[in-house]
Amino acid sequence: MKIKAIILLVAVVMVSAFAKAQKTMDTFEVQVDGLGCPFCAYGLEKKFKEFKGIKKVVIDIETGDFSFQYPSEKNLTMQAVVKQVEKAGYTPITSKITRADGTVEANEANTTELSAESVVVTQQVLVAGKCGMCEARIINAAGNIPGVTAAAWKQDQQMMKVTYDKSQVTLDGIQSEIARIGHDTKAHKATDEAYANLPGCCKYERLDQ
């Protein structure tokens, strides 16, 4: 009887400890664009393993859904998560944090609003890339820039067609943002670090500036 009582007590303590641990973890959910293969998922997970203490990483490459848990006492921010996704070479579309205390924080991709002062133009610019994943990454990065209303990129031409409000953003600014995620443009070259963070299948031939 004593042995059974001890086993029961240990089980209760373990369950209690597990429940307590769960209550001290924040849950993060991010929809990521550009995940096309297991290698991509591995690269994203590897990048987030830089966050010491990360738990329960789940990535669905078909839907782009990415979730994980992180100790609430570390107070990981939405901005830090978005930045880490971008460092991995992908574009966060939506993100949501459910804090341990039940508080929910959510963020969605940018939606540009035009005003009477808007000056909308459409231009084309050279942007280097290699595959469909590059296309998705470039288009979504451009689409998330305030002032951009539409973007398209053609792999065979290496050209991005972008429509934007000149009162909110410049073509140079758009190119700078595209370079920041790892893709060389006519006016801005991606840093070696940003280029290195791209998945292997996206390693295009660098542009000469």
UniProtKB/TrEMBL annotation:
| Domain of life of the native organism | Bacteria
Q: Domain HMA, which positions?
A: 26-93
UniProtKB keywords? Signal
> What is the name of the protein in this document?
Heavy metal transporter
Q: Which residues form a coiled coil?
A: none
Indicate the secretion signal residues.
1-19
Identify the Pfam families for this entry: HMA (PF00403)
- List the Gene3D superfamilies: 3.30.70.100
Task: Please give the InterPro entries that the UniProt record associates with this protein.
Answer: HMA_dom, HMA_dom_sf
Does the keyword field hold Signal?
yes
Q: Which PROSITE patterns match?
A: HMA_2 (PS50846)
GO MF annotations in UniProt: metal ion binding
Q: What is the organism lineage in this UniProt record?
A: Bacteria, Pseudomonadati, Bacteroidota, Flavobacteriia, Flavobacteriales
